[in-house]
Amino acid sequence: MPDGDAGAAGRVADDEWFGATVGVVTRLVAEGVTDAVAIQASLRDGDQFAVLYDRYAAELYRYAYRRVGPQAAEDAVADCFLAAFRQRHRYDATRPMALPWLYGILTKELARRRRREQAHFRALARVVEDVAPQGLADQVVARVSAQACRRTLATALSRLPSRDRDVLLLVAWGGLTYEEVAQALRLPLGTVRSRLHRARRRVRAALGEIGPSQDMEEWR
Amino acid sequence: MNHGMPDMTMLEELGSALDPPTAGPPAALRGRVLAAATQPPVRPGRGAGLRWRLVAAGAMAAALTAALFITHTVQVGGHAPVARAEAAEILQQSARAARADATPLPRPDQFVFTESVTVGESLSVEADGTQRTRAATPTVSRVWRSVDGTRDGLLRTRPKSGTGGWSQTLLPRCGLVRRGDATAASGRQVTAPAPAACKPVPAYRSDLPTDGAGMLAYLNARAQLSAGHDEANPGWNVRARALFAAVEDTLHDWYLPAPARAALFEAAATIPGMSVVHDVVDDAGRHGVAVGVSDGAGRADLIFDPKTYQLLGSREVAGAQKGTLQGHTTILRVVIVDRAGQLPG
Lengths: 220, 345
Description:
heterodimer; A: mainly alpha; 10 helices; 73% helix; B: alpha+beta; 9-stranded antiparallel sheet; 11 strands
């Protein structure tokens, strides 16, 4: 009997310990600690994954919306979180913030909607508006020039190879650092830099280059 | 991190212009996602995804390389790259030429006028993901950018050959739209932090270091290079390419006062592994000497006049030694003028 009691007590203790741990984790998550903790908690309790959704859905949605427009953005974000949930056991728990990981997954979801993205940028590029004649009110000029500029940029974006566009937009629109982009896309940092550089070259070329040195009239 | 770089700033502004009308996705999406997530999952095989990813990446890389080499018929001019000491010497000469430049500083109300010919890469990716090539047409650009960024700039472009007229784009002084608000639910700063309605993008930057060491530190920061955080295998050429790219970006982003320009070339002279290609001919028929950095995939060059050490342009070459031209920019003239649209002389 003493043996049996000891065994039962041991099991109870384990269960209590387990319960207490989950309780702590849940509380920590609720208090807003790291994404990594939330993801680990979600391995036992799938509902915990809602924490990630609540933290990042708005930002990811905005990013996707800019790239593919309303409906496709909604689908991409939904598919992104579903894919993230399925892969959560592979999450590298040493990374406290999950946003780069989520951006990486979202990037793959957007790649599946490349046709939609191209149409989106081309539609922007097609917005036809004449360049303002002189003498218009400042506001009108500003609006018209904004559209012309937008058109130029959208055309440039639609012509980028998608691998370069991914890097460029994760930096420009996602606000990721080079390291976060490297992490998101699982690329070496050097590759991130060179893709970004190449993409910027092309965007710059579309906007006209600026030169560093003075009058070179003699060459004309 | 993109602060003040004109193209990145404009992209950020385009982004703000494309923002959804609501702060987040439709509320119903949350329930839809979480309900679907907590359904009994169909767990994919662990290794399969990764293997597939690697195979696919390899295939894509091969396709990309093939496309570049098959379609570019423009042979790169010049002889085989030669020694590094000479590369550093050319950059030092260029720095000296810049230090000797006594051109008056521009006034805030003026414009930097730049005329250039750009030839882009002809590789493109179609809507369905296939990679296509497009004829790379040389384009002449005339751009007027406000010195202090508070006035509308102007961009005119036309094909270099043919009879096409100029197409014109105004470069608005205050960005494209009202900028969106600042923080995501996580409290993390997101892309567009500035609430200001107007964010000038100046063409002229006077606050960069004027000594080589200071400039090198700036370039390191710009390339996001720092000791010990580079990728697992930080070959010197990765570092060198990144630094060289930062030099190029800095040259193209702003009109710099002569001392900063000199410092930039001095800093560039310290980049390891550079080499020289003699007798490169650019789009304007000018002969130049190319100084650049190679890695396995190709090389990037700045091209200088061999007598005056003025910068003539830049180019990018695919293939380490005898590669094919991927893209280049020929700077025809850079002049300070009083009004957007005004031609110098």
